[in-house]
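Hey L., structure's done. Input below.
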Amino acid sequence: MRTTITRLALVLLLMSCSPPGSGDPAASGEARTLEDPAADMDGVLRVLVYHDMEGLTGQSDPNTFRFSHPERYAVGRTYLTGDVNAVVAGLFDGGADEVHIVDGHGSGNPEPDLLLDQLDGRAELVSRNEVFDAYVDLTEPGAYDAIAVVGMHAKTGSGGFASHTYTLGIDFLLNGMAVTETELVGYSWGRVGVPVIFASGDDRLAADLAGPMPWIEFVTVKTATSASSANPRPVDEARAEMREASARAMANHRSARAMRLAEPATAQLHAVPPADLSMLASVPGIDYADQRVTFEASDFRAAYDGLVGLVTVARGGYAAVMSETGRAMAGPAFGPTYSDALFDRWLDFESDRWSPVAPPAAAVRTFHGFR
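Output:
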């Protein structure tokens, strides 16, 4: 989902995130501030709904949110569309004038995860003609009055169903606070005074958000029993509560709080298996210790961009799983075969017998969020 960057590029990125002498807001106890929502600029109440796919009603199988497992993923799409429709209906019940939806999941499906032919016709899917980051590239003053998130999951280490932050094996910390993706959305929109008012997911996400975002109308749709199992509530019961809670959230959206990260910010990426940051241990200019890289950033966007860059490096650890899989499939021949292929690629490139293949011309299409 993100392009690869070199170690040198990463060093330059992190060194440019904040000016020399920047302080650590967390050290002074001012990790963030909570503010009143920004004033409505045009008299039209617009809500943006982010959807993920790990915190859905009826769901206990991780393959229901994976595009690579088409039969189970098809079931997950029905879960997702039903949940989104319940929240869309509730937001309109509560007084919303317009509701837009954006994909915060990134299943790999080039088409929307939502079943658009079954989506509430009053809602509109956000799309653009170029790739965009749903967390940070939509944030504009006056664009929306409130944010709702549906089908979300707990953060890395919370013990929730499919709990993670951003991607596998990644933990984001901002000003010393380990954050969920719901909080990333909150801090991004807090830059322009827009609060997150509603969320749904499992019981572990409810616990993750109880402290930092107590004003949210939260609906627990299932109880996590491990990262790969959960006990879902009855679907009709959970969706009825989602509709009621999102209606209350909309009706009371002016009492919610906008979250603003204290700046300059201290950001840290913590890698856990299958991710790995140890390759940065000896790189000059990198503050690395115990699978953690820390840096200072001028603002939330710079912190986010630096963390995403580090994610690309941490994903290098995934190669260990690929190697294990290759050895299991090919047996003892895998290691020598891979070594010879790598060696021959180097020789062929140096001898002008091989060059990288140019990617095919991109087809004209629209993008609806994370891919």
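Residues 1-9, 11-28 have pLDDT under 50 and may be disordered. The longest helix spans residues 70-93.

-- N.
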